[in-house]
TrEMBL record:
Belongs to the NAD synthetase family. InterPro entries: C-N_Hydrolase, C-N_Hydrolase_sf, Gln-dep_NAD_synthase, NAD/GMP_synthase, NAD_synthase, Rossmann-like_a/b/a_fold. It comes from Hymenobacter aranciens. It catalyses: deamido-NAD(+) + L-glutamine + ATP + H2O = L-glutamate + AMP + diphosphate + NAD(+) + H(+). One of its GO terms (molecular function) is NAD+ synthase activity. This is Glutamine-dependent NAD(+) synthetase. Deamido-NAD(+) binds at N449, E478, K602. Catalyzes the ATP-dependent amidation of deamido-NAD to form NAD. Uses L-glutamine as a nitrogen source. Keywords: ATP-binding, Ligase, NAD, Nucleotide-binding. ATP binds at T473. The lineage of its organism: Bacteria, Pseudomonadati, Bacteroidota, Cytophagia, Cytophagales.
Length: 639
């Protein structure tokens, strides 16, 4: 039998988009001679519909829309993820359709309730072994713990999280021997290196439960924060039959394989290992796709970025350039432009390759009289990304040159203006009001913050005028300790790297300079991270203000990923050979926890950020913490 999975780029309650992708997948599958097709979890409504799953009308609308899929299933068996609401309870189900009929709804038994998943808020888990009936416009179908048969092949279900439970409780343990095939429609969020875990999960399931296992994940940045990698896996008795390229820019990614169910396949002795995932490359692809989906789903025209020439903003600029490069290489220029929605088809907004010059007229300070012609990708970047350097007396030539060279090398529009006048204006006003001078000795933080804040209105104005999203550049390490000015450098509509730690940011930039060929990054890769908010002679660096970033990351992970107490964190660090004495480590641990507690309110106010690493510190996503708390005072005093 030819079986297939299709990854779909869906959007919550975008019925038109979601049905179109479902139809495309079914048509492609039929054209390829596929007999059984698995589509991802909740693909009809979108997985991330949040509290809409609790309404009566939305699941009802889903059932109504499911009727449109029926005629498309003539001659094929198709699995479609859909919520079903019965007696004021919503179930997360996989509908099985064939030849225009609905055969039934298999319901999810184990709900995802960790990290970025909050399913028990919306769904009720189905009880193994039970079934009920769904009534709809005079028809009735079975719902619950069901198995099906198609052309002699018996199949049952695990729906995403069902497969992430121990082997002796998950649905597969009750299906073994009763089915030939287990189908798994998933909405499994992307995190760096996670594909390896998923691969082992699927391969082991096929081996341990003596079956063929068909797995299909959602694709793309569905609803803002979480990106799905569109993984399709087919395995049989521990052997891999199919695995696709992840994180495609396409709307539909169909993969099929032939399985001879009539012939037994020998059980694999062991699971063949995959090469270790390349996290730098994974992050690049995920970030590019997440930005592309975000900008088009937000119906925006591109991005505006306050580019300091430092690590975080340089990474954000390269991410947009990579969004273009990766998207164009997969979709081609015309399809990339069409899908982005950021180009007016009536106008030829991007000049042809080699024509050059057009976008440079907008640059305030062209660095040569005869600018080098831009490549087609650079012209696209020029259309989609506008950057501005906003210097003060505390800014250095190094960061200005870094910002300017990078922007020009990727083709972004680049502006340069100073903000000293605005800073002096505000400082003068407050000095007048208070009747005293503000000085670095008495008003250090306030004088730092006003500079960061004064950068916000101008760049916001530019974003509004251009109808663009304003990127804010905060990383996870800064978010943990509140090393940012609220409504200053945190101002913005999207925060792409708030889930990534600063040490990773710095390493990624060095990798990108050579591996992705961004020579414009050579300046930033030679710089120490600095806020440049104090007078230059102060030689401010992030790590002098805080602590070494590697240590900050380690404390953060031990405290909030491993969930250790302050004392356990300290004891662990002492055994890890950090090069610091216990007393110094205790100072860092105390600093981390007090800054962490004091700054929860800032994390509550960050712009929406992407989940990219195995955890993040966003309270609306992975990690909840009280805004007001005792701040670990007792625990820290005892260190
Ligand atoms: N629980 C709570 N709920 C609501 N508000 C709370 C609060 N606790 C304090 N606040 C208020 O927060 C305000 C202070 O916060 P905020 O004004 O943001 O500033 P603040 O946290 O005092 O200082 C900003 C820090 O970030 C660093 N920074 C800033 C900008 C850029 C960079 C860089 O790396 O480039 C670094 C800077 O060096 C400084 O260490 C105060 O007005 C305080 O009253
Ligand atoms: N001179 C500047 N021009 C434009 N934007 C700036 C300037 N200084 C700071 N910013 C904005 O404030 C953000 C926060 O500064 P921060 O120093 O944390 O990041 P960075 O400069 O990108 O990286 P690093 O911390 O590694 O130097 C910057 O990413 C940038 O968006
Ligand atoms: N949708 C789900 O059930 C996802 C949960 C699962 N643990 C995953 O991360 O893939």
């Amino acid at each position: 039998m030819r079986i297939a999975g299709a990854a779909l780029n869906q959007t919550p309650i975008d019925w038109e988009n979601n049905l179109r992708n479902i139809r495309t997948a079914i048509e492609q599958a039929k054209a390829a001679g596929v007999e059984l097709l698995c589509l991802p979890e909740l693909c009809l409504t979108g997985y991330g519909c949040e509290d809409l799953f609790l309404s009566d009308w939305m699941p009802a609308a889903a059932l109504t829309h499911l009727q449109q899929v029926r005629p498309w299933t003539e001659g094929i068996c198709v699995v479609v993820g859909v919520p079903v609401r019965l007696n004021h309870r919503t179930y997360n189900t996989a509908a099985v359709l064939r030849d225009g009929q609905i055969l039934g709804f298999a319901a999810k038994q184990f709900l995802a309730n960790d990290g970025v998943h909050y399913e028990p808020r919306f769904f009720v888990p189905w009880v193994a072994g039970e079934t009920t009936t769904v009534e709809f416009e005079g028809e009735s179908w079975a719902l619950g713990d069901l198995t099906f048969e198609h052309r002699g092949v018996r199949f049952g279900f695990e729906i995403c999280e069902d497969a992430w439970r121990p082997d002796d409780v998950r649905p597969a343990c009750r299906l073994t021997g009763r089915v030939d095939l287990i189908v798994n429609p998933s909405a499994s969020h992307f995190a760096m290196s996670k594909t390896d875990v998923r691969y082992k999960l699927v391969l082991n399931a096929s081996r341990n439960f003596n079956c063929t296992y068909l797995y299909a994940n959602l694709l793309g940045n569905e609803a803002g924060r979480i990106t799905y990698d569109g993984e399709i896996l087919v395995a049989r008795n521990g052997h891999l039959l199919k695995r696709n390229q992840l994180l495609s820019f396409k709307e539909v990614d169909l993969e099929w394989v032939d399985v001879d169910f009539a012939t037994e396949q020998e059980r694999a002795e062991e699971i063949a290992a995959l090469p270790a995932p390349d996290e730098y490359r994974e992050l690049n692809q995920a970030l590019g796709l997440a930005l592309f989906d975000y900008v088009r789903k937000a119906r925006s025209k591109g991005f505006v970025l306050s580019l300091s020439g430092g690590a975080d903003s340089c990474l954000c600029a390269v991410a947009v350039a990579e969004m273009v490069r990766l998207g164009v290489s997969e979709l081609g220029v015309e399809e990339f432009k069409r899908r982005s929605g950021a180009f007016d088809p009536a106008k030829n907004e991007v000049v042809q390759a080699g024509a050059g010059g057009a976008a440079l007229q907008e640059v305030q300070e062209p660095n040569t009289e005869n600018p080098i012609p831009k490549t087609e990708n650079q012209q696209l970047v020029g259309h989609l990304l506008t950057c501005a350097y906003q210097g003060t007396v505390n800014s250095s030539d190094d960061t200005y040159i870094s910002a300017k060279d990078l922007a020009e090398s990727i083709g972004a529009r680049f502006f340069n203006w100073g903000i000293d006048e605005e800073v002096s204006g505000y400082v003068g006003k407050i000095q007048g009001a208070l009747g005293r001078e503000l000085s670095w000795k008495t008003d250090d933080l306030a004088l730092q913050n006003i500079q960061a804040r004064v950068r916000a209105p101008g760049i916001w104005l530019l974003a509004n005028v251009l109808n663009c999203l304003l990127i804010t550049t905060s990383n996870r390490s800064e978010a943990s300790v509140g090393y940012c000015t609220m409504d200053g450098d945190t101002a913005g509509s999207i925060s792409p790297i708030a889930g990534v730690d600063k040490d990773f940011v710095k390493k990624w930039l060095r990798w990108a300079e050579t591996e992705l060929n961004y020579p414009g990054l050579r300046h930033v890769n030679a710089l120490q991270p600095t806020a440049e908010l104090r007078p230059l002679e102060d030689k401010q660096t992030d790590e002098r203000d805080l602590m070494p970033y590697t240590l900050l990351n380690r404390i953060e992970r031990l405290a909030f990923y491993d969930r250790l107490s302050p004392r356990q964190v300290l004891d662990t660090l002492v055994t890890e050979g950090t090069g610091f004495e216990r007393e110094q480590l205790a100072t860092f641990v105390r600093r981390f926890y007090s800054l962490w507690s004091r700054n929860q309110w800032k994390r509550e106010r960050y712009a929406p950020s992407f989940h990219l690493d195995d955890y993040n510190v966003d309270p609306r996503s992975w990690l909840r913490f009280p805004i007001l708390s005792g701040g670990f005072q007792e625990e820290l005093a005892g260190l």
